[in-house]
Amino acid sequence: MNWTWFHKLGSPKWFYDISGRWLPWLGAAAALLIAVGTVWGLAFAPPDYQQGNSFRIIYIHVPAAILAQSCYIMLAVAGVVGLVWKMKLADVALQCAAPIGAWMTFIALVTGAVWGKPTWGAWWVWDARLTAMLILLFLYFGVIALGQSISNRDSAAKACAVLAIVGVINIPIIKYSVEWWNTLHQPATFKITEKPAMPAEMWVPLLVMVIGFYCFFAVALLLRMRLEVLKRESRASWVKAEVERSL
């Protein structure tokens, strides 16, 4: 098996060049998908037979919640790559993705509270899934704080990687909490092995929004990583050439 592509991921210059080609396409896809999904979900999807129009918060809440969990898994993978293969770009990805994941977790918690008020009659309950999502937010804060408080870059990278790897145990707790405990939170909206419980007019725009959120995450992450790469490689000749080309 040819692992050339994997070793290229460790090259800041290669990453900067290839990410510059992907960004316009990802940005256009994110804008189009989120616009279509928002209009479709909020204006054209039928109201829920039980929750009425209050269910429409699902088109923000579910994509944000899915992305928040996926982002933390990415942090753990980047942590393993950084510790095992010593790729500096893995630490760059980890440090740059953590704030985005934290914001997505915050959005999921806030929209969940907005949804919970008319559905459960309360803004917040100590439900197993809600509590696990709150813990996820604190884990993100921990990764961000470690990265900023430790002055030595290598030590900070190792500490953040370890926390990301240890904290990933919270992800299956979030996913299966509804099945393991008696909770108020409804079961998963999407399941790979089962047909969606919602009609297509409801879940198709939701799927569009989920894909759009992933494209947005990719754009935000690549932009942050490109800036961080330029900072860390500021003395490299290719960075100086890139700066001169842009002037």
From TrEMBL:
This is Heme exporter protein C. It is a multi-pass membrane protein. InterPro entries: Cyt_c_assembly, Cyt_c_biogenesis_CcmC, Cyt_c_biogenesis_CcsA/CcmC. Residues 28-185 form the Cytochrome c assembly protein domain. It is found in: Cell inner membrane; Membrane. The keyword Transport applies. Belongs to the CcmC/CycZ/HelC family.
